[in-house]
Amino acid sequence: MTQTTTIEIDFDVYKSIETNRNSFTETPNDVLRRLLGIEVKAGLKVVEGGKPYTYQHMQIPHGSEAIMTYNGVDYAARIEDGSWITQDGQRHKSPSGAASALAVTKAGGKTKLDGWGYWRIKKPGSSDYIALMALWNASEKAHKARTGGS
Fold first, then answer.
1. Are the CB atoms for 4 and 28 separated by under 8 Å?
2. How far is Cα 100 from Cα 36, in angstroms, rounded to an integer?
3. Which of 3, 46, 115, 148 is the most buried if burial means most Cβ atoms within 10 Å?
4. Does pTM surpass 0.85?
């Protein structure tokens, strides 16, 4: 097992690391190794063929990317094997849990957010982000059409 050390970085350095990611699965450590010319070790990658995130009639495919902005700060997550994985590597069961775990108030505190109103989703193979609520509304409309409105 590789030994790790925690370091403090300011937000501008963190933003630069995120900007230099080649893919959503590239870890901050991998980015720094690549930029510093240190051999990139095999890290955790998104497993192909994982299950989608499912809520009632809506599904978001495994490997989808998610972004949100709160108080002028951008945050990221991905759907991996049915869960929301936030940019800090934490696993969450819902978009609200993921949004609340990341968001910081202007005073620097934590807050509870309804993630359904914040996240935008980019499905694998797509180039566009779609509001999570728009996906939900489309899934509900399709479900009602299939079931005759029930």
1. no
2. 33
3. 115
4. no
